[in-house]
Design goal:
It comes from Gracilibacillus kekensis. Pfam families: Aldo_ket_red (PF00248). The chain is of the alpha/beta class and about 280 residues long. It contains ten helices and ten strands. It has an eight-stranded parallel sheet. A two-stranded antiparallel sheet has the order 1-2. Strand 8, helix 6 and strand 9 form a beta-alpha-beta unit.
Length: about 280
């Protein structure tokens, strides 16, 4: 049952991951990220999602340390950047992230993008498998991988990825990818679930929100959860961090779920993983 901020899903290796977390993409290191994470943890969030390229792991780590919450109660995710996908570089990149975060292990480590050149992500995956077997990471996964990238990876993988974090919102529902991930027991996770605010005024969503006396954002985040998708909305405002998490006291009807399903446009706000190769 997904009925509070501590509700978890069990990944295929038995690790429990919260359905709901805080993302810190484009949140500035220092006071801004520190406060965001602090407010989230104080409110009951257990899952925080960062990445090496966000350049805010130090602020995240400081907020975690200052929270006083036992480490084992938290679920911390970071990501391996594109320029670090060579085997030795990937091993070192995790050490750097752990050092910045002030942690001894990560709960989840993701390959940030499927860099196509020279099968770099396959090399990275070998490093992730080693780190996983060494106990440095409790679960390993992918970010922004399409079906063909995952199929390619699985040809040589010893460990099936536990998670695939992708752009996911009512305008980009990625149904075939979601189905593919389900078939392989890979948990889908949504980044940019609110499409950076671009869909908050949509009349279909605002109408559903009125019916439930909720905000449009809350309706979208509830839709994620009812779709079986982990969601990590970002905010730097305390009241929003609280409001985003207020999605456990109502349920969308089958009819409302269908109305949202019909909003799909296959429209991205972020890069296409097939063409994104930023170093």
């Amino acid at each position: 049952m997904v009925n509070n901020l501590q509700s978890t899903t069990t990944l295929h290796n038995g690790v429990k991951m919260p359905w709901f977390g805080l993302g810190v993409f484009q949140v500035e290191d220092g006071e801004e990220v520190y406060n965001s994470v602090k407010w989230a943890l104080e409110h009951g969030y257990k899952s925080i999602d960062t990445a090496a390229i966000y350049k805010n792991e130090e602020g995240v780590g400081k907020a975690i340390k200052d929270s006083g919450i036992p480490r084992e109660e938290l679920f911390i995710t970071s990501k391996l950047w594109n320029s670090d996908q060579a085997y030795e570089d990937a091993l070192q990149a995790l050490e750097t992230s752990l050092e910045k975060l002030g942690l001894e292990y990560l709960d989840l480590y993701l390959i940030h993008w499927p860099v196509p050149e020279q099968n770099k992500y396959k090399e990275a995956w070998k490093a992730m498998e080693k780190l996983y077997k060494d106990g440095k990471i409790r679960a390993i996964g992918l970010s922004n991988f399409k079906e063909h990238h995952i199929e390619d990876l699985l040809e040589d993988a010893e460990v099936v990825p536990m998670v695939n974090q992708v752009e996911y919102h009512p305008h980009l529902q990625q149904r075939s990818l979601h189905e593919f991930c389900k078939q392989h027991n890979i948990q889908l996770e949504a980044w940019s679930p609110l499409k950076q605010g671009q869909i908050l005024a949509d009349p279909i969503l605002t109408d559903i929100a009125k019916r439930h006396e909720k905000s449009t954002a809350q309706v979208i985040l509830r839709w994620d959860l009812q779709q079986g998708v982990i969601t990590i909305p970002k905010s730097v405002k305390q009241h929003r961090i609280h409001d985003n998490a207020d999605v456990f006291d109502f349920e969308l009807t089958d009819e409302e779920m269908k109305l949202i399903a019909n909003m799909n446009k296959d429209e991205r706000i972020g890069p296409d993983p097939d063409t994104f190769n930023k170093r």
